[in-house]
Amino acid sequence: MSILHDDDYILAADRRPLSALYSRNARAVIERGFRVIKSQNWIVLVSGFFEPVFYLLSMGIGLGQLVGSVQGPNGAPISYAAYIAPALLAVSAMNGAIYDSTWNIFFKMHFGKLYQSMLYTSLGPFDIAVGEIFMALFRGFLYALGFTGVMAVMGLITTPWALLLVPASVMVAFGFASFGMAITSYMKTFQQMDIITFVMLPMFLFSATFYPLTVYPEPVQWLVQALPLWHGVELMREISTGAFSLVTLLHLLYYVVMVLVGLAFTTRRLRALFLR
Amino acid sequence: MTEGRLLRAQAPEVSAAKARRWGSLYFMEHMLRSMRAYVVTIIVTSIGNPLLYLFSMGVGLASIVDRSPSAHFAGVGYLAFAAPALLVSSSVMTCANEMMFPVMDGFKWRRIYYGPHVTPLVPGQLAAGHVMAVGIRLLVQCTVFYLIMLGFGATLSPTSWLIVPVGVLAGMAFGTPLMAYAARIDKENFQFSMIQRFIVMPLFLFSGTFYPLGTMPQAMQWIGWISPLWHGNQLGRLVTIGPTEPVWLVAVHVVYLAALGTFGMVWARHNYARRMDA
Amino acid sequence: MVASVRPEGAPVISAQDLVKTYGDVNAVDGISFAIPAGESFGLLGPNGAGKSTTMRMIGGVSQRTAGQLNIMGLDPEQQGPEVRAHLGVVPQQDNLDEELRVRENLIIYGRYFGLSRSYLSQRADELLEFAQLQDKAKARVDSLSGGMKRRLTIARSLINDPKILLLDEPTTGLDPQARHVLWDRLFRLKEQGVTLVLTTHYMDEAEQLCDRLIVVDKGRIMAEGSPAQLIRKHSSREVLELRFGTDRNVAVAERLDGTGDRIEVLPDRVLVYSDNGEESLEAIRGRGFHPITSLVRRASLEDVFLRLTGRSLVD
Question: Closest Cα to residue C185, out of C153, C142, C225?
Fold first, then answer.
């Protein structure tokens, strides 16, 4: 290393928009993510795939025997397993994305102190956010691929449209992941993080995952329809049977808007989240 | 310190004798106090979970299950069938959580076991005190769940209040062996999430919680037979619905749960002593 | 891209009236300083004085509540990535990536600066040697000892050949030998013209490493200067430490007037500030007081701090 002189201490400013938060190097964060995946125990990575599969086996096969067939999205009766499978995929996409963008971020921030070290490099918070969301979506993609395969093996796939379950699942995950970090930026303690669970559990239980929305009184139906998971569940169900309509577009649009609003929200909260 | 009258602790022999006798309770108090950190979560989940599950499963799901001709649950509606099992499941899952990370916390992270360890308390008392504190939490949780069940009209038998001790018993039958195992772990490399995903979750789903065990394919019914949750579920239904099983099977449920809980407690005391006195 | 606005010879870091408030606590309460290129600058103060917060603001990873900050002509809050590209940072607590191996920690950290793989591969090996961790390259981070982790953190901070090195309590928790190894490495960097900014609550470290320092307490600057200047200005040359027993220290101290420039009573001992400690001790014995223990030592920054704040550095 040569000896530094006074005129070596000169810096050029960068006038790109967002240059205070973003150094166009999210790929370095992604590279770290893949290295961790490579060196971590594969069972840990794979384990996330099993939860929806267990649900499908238990509810689809066991409960399905008792329930028999139910009305599918296009009016024709379908098996109970075929009815809940796409919904479980949507739930799993939501859970994975929310976990990765809330608890995972919270842990790395407060316990692993990982982001403290990243932020002292030329990375900005936006690089970290983009990299982490990408990794969350990558995991979601893997699980969706696996789950769709299980559906195929169980004979629950009857149309080639069902291949779209994988990208749709990533879209649902993106919708939730784009919001997760912004929400985490308001959380200071474990106890506050529990609030996330209090919101997620009812959404899971009431979003027409295991039975049609029509069992509820009308006002409750309206409420459920305003929530994102219901749109994900319906979107997946329509894709799995190839029963598309204008409403399908509405569900998609819901997620497009959710992603855009979520990303804008998260970008606004980056300073509060990372630069305390 | 030196002003006024001289404050003196009781004689060491007295402390030793008291600790020998009541030490577990002293540590139970410690653990209960440390639960105050998440008392809001405890209260909200104790009230929220029964409401959510009874509404969504007991009422929502029931609306499509009860109208199906093939479904019959010992002649009662789906709500009455599922509710006791949901109570027992929630107790087992809470106990599982309380016996994994908090135990690791005691040995490794915040090392809360090591403070009392240099007082007259012995490791076995720490295990027992921790179990008792969790038992109290389960007792509260199961009682609240039971009251909410009453509100839903989900109980059919005058003995239904017995679901509370059944819930605590089932929770402990699963929780104490887990505690003993957690006490053996030196480094937490995702073992707990693996247990959560490959033991707790499958037990919840395959232990006859949502439908009778006999509905599952023959090849999977063994899961229920070894699962403390299934035995707890069946006992729960016995006390809230009424007898549907032969007496010998009821005896199997009780003996199995009691044996598992006792074995877990003995093993946990052993592991605590081995780890802390080594 | 526009050229830097820093004129030649101007300080590389300058802070004007920095304030950082958390809730209603002023962690940093109006601090100003300027650091020229190549200087080794220290922030000395007890835990909680606001040193680490100041460091975090310099790195642009904590938003200041008020004040101006200029690093090589740029505001780190507006140009965080650009500023940090030239910084090396050693945080108070090691924050190594436990999910990666030792060498990977260096490589991936370098990738955050957008450095090329071929450069990093070479540089990582050099730095492992610098940190004496060559044979730990493939080890897990959690298998390293405390001293090894610290050395790895310091090696990591050098991955981008920083021009400014921020060191937050660099040797806390290290054994004496490891500290001297580390001081040696820091001297070498200083010789190469690297600007060092370090916080410490060890006065010997400050005396060894710093050209100039500020004494910080409760978020404010109490004094500024070189270690020697500060000692000269705020203390006598020597200090006589006396113990008369817990019950007697206060009573005896009241009767020692005139045996030194100044008397300071601590809970466990009495300090007599004087240019000649031995002479003072003779005078005290002459008055008929016989301490249980006595010690004459050279005055240190600890004494400066005690003088300025009435408290000792390490509680």
Answer: C153
